[in-house]
Write a structure and sequence with these properties.
By secondary structure, the chain is mainly beta. About 5% of the residues lie in helices and about 45% in strands.
Length: about 160
């Protein structure tokens, strides 16, 4: 075990996108296994993630600095420094943060690392399923509720 500093993380624990969103994976850098701890730096007029929900993962968010909008199950809430929210597991709570302010929106994001989880992206009707270290992506319209694994079932 060693003491690390958020400003001196090795590059392998930093993720950046094309608009300037940065995620620092503190938990992974420290060797955490059952939870993740990230700090997200969301630039003005950008989103923290695509709008999504989880089937298994529990999450906790706290605004460290800046202000923005939390989209949560179709409603929007203004958030600012010091605000926090927990998202219980398996509640199908869709969420994302949007930086509607003029400075970086900094969010601490803590959650459970789940080997099995399905993310649903309602704006795009897409699913991302992770299981057995594999990821599968499929459209909601492709789901067939009439299919069954029963060998003698006929349609």
């Amino acid at each position: 075990m060693e003491i690390l500093n958020v400003e001196q993380l090795p590059e392998e624990f930093l993720w950046k996108d094309s608009v300037g969103l940065i995620t620092k994976s503190l938990g992974a850098a420290a060797g955490s296994q059952k939870i993740y701890v990230n700090i997200d730096y969301v630039p003005p007029k950008a989103y923290s993630t695509k709008y999504h929900s989880h089937s298994q993962q529990e999450e906790f968010f706290m605004i460290l600095s800046g202000s923005g909008t939390l989209r949560l199950n179709g409603q929007e809430w203004l958030v600012k420094q010091g605000d926090f929210i927990a998202k219980p597991a398996a509640q199908e709570i869709a969420h994302t943060f949007y930086n509607s302010g003029n400075e970086s929106l900094v969010i601490i994001d803590v959650g459970t690392n789940e080997k099995e989880d399905t993310c649903y992206y309602p704006d795009e009707d897409m699913y991302l399923q992770k299981s057995n270290d594999q990821r599968r992506i499929f459209r909601g319209k492709d789901l067939d509720s009439s299919w069954t694994s029963e060998p003698n079932h006929t349609k």
